[in-house]
Design goal:
- By secondary structure, the chain is mostly helical.
- The protein has two domains: about 130 residues, no CATH class; about 110 residues, no CATH class.
- The chain is built from 13 helices and two strands; from the N terminus they run αααααααααααααββ.
- The chain has a two-stranded antiparallel sheet.
- It starts with 19 loop residues before the first helix and ends with a strand.
- The C terminus is likely disordered.
Length: about 270
């Protein structure tokens, strides 16, 4: 169910809970520039069409989640690191106009909203207006590191696509381990560790890491498809059929055997 966000700042915001000295320091930081110049540019009403007006659980405030996605990219954080900052960082609470007790979201929420941004035909316009105001107000030097709207949307596409690859590979390997443990044991140990016996989540990457991880995930898909394409039992599994479809739709086969390379097609 869609829940609109009030355009007004909260009366009992985190800034009003600080002493005068700390509040003055906060108002000279990036957080104040983001709060005043960027946060109000996030128009949650644009996303109302993605939620049932009458049924279902209320959505996380649009302004909060989109703001976290932008800050994640600006500071080059993983989802986990960004959510940790949201949970405990006073500057983030102030920048996003959220009370500490309400400053919480899960990784799945960030993933879902990334997909919504890509589905929204007006998403690029939202980021163009918001980030242009942020860059101008904060006096950021974009020649050193681009943080404009095109750059952020491009990173969102990469991270969403990486999540698709990781989900398909993990789903296949989990089914293979459950139904054919001996065959699963024949998969390379490093590949299995990335998706089954891992610490953290391979798809939870910094924006700067996403291209390398996506290339690695594409190679992993290639190796799995090549290893089991002619295996009668495995080739009949639904999870393997999805892996093959992902390979056909998203990858260009290597032209040589060594070194193996896969060129990723442009994501629509």
């Amino acid at each position: 169910m869609f829940r609109p966000t009030s355009p007004q700042f909260g009366l009992f915001s985190v800034g009003n809970r600080l002493d005068e000295t700390k509040r003055a320091r906060l108002q000279k930081s990036w957080a104040h520039q983001f709060r005043c110049a960027a946060l109000q540019m996030i128009d949650g009403e644009r996303f109302a069409k993605f939620f049932d007006k009458d049924n279902g659980r209320s959505n996380k405030p649009i302004r909060l989640v989109v703001g976290v996605l932008v800050l994640k990219d600006v500071f080059d954080l993983t989802d986990e690191q960004a959510l940790e900052q949201l949970e405990w960082n006073t500057a983030w609470h102030y920048a996003l106009d959220v009370l500490p007790e309400d400053a919480h979201a899960c990784q799945k929420t960030l993933h879902n909203y990334r997909e919504l941004l890509l589905q929204d035909g007006e998403g690029s316009g939202l980021f163009e207006s918001m980030t242009a105001r942020l860059v101008a107000a904060a006096g950021l030097n974009t020649r050193r590191q681009r943080q404009d709207s095109t750059h952020i949307l491009s990173n969102i596409k990469l991270l969403t696509r990486l999540g698709l690859f990781v989900q398909a590979i993990t789903q296949f390997l989990e089914r293979l381990r459950s139904e054919h443990p001996r065959l699963c044991g024949e998969v390379g140990a490093e590949l299995r560790e990335r998706y089954l016996d891992r610490e953290g989540y391979f798809a939870d990457a910094r924006s700067s890491e996403a291209p390398h991880r996506l290339a690695q995930a594409a190679l992993d898909v290639y190796h799995l498809v090549r290893q089991f394409a002619d295996h009668r039992t495995v080739s009949g599994m639904e999870a393997f059929a999805l892996l093959q479809r992902l390979y056909r739709d998203q990858c260009v086969p290597p032209t040589t055997e060594a070194p193996i390379q896969i060129d990723l097609q442009e994501m629509p």
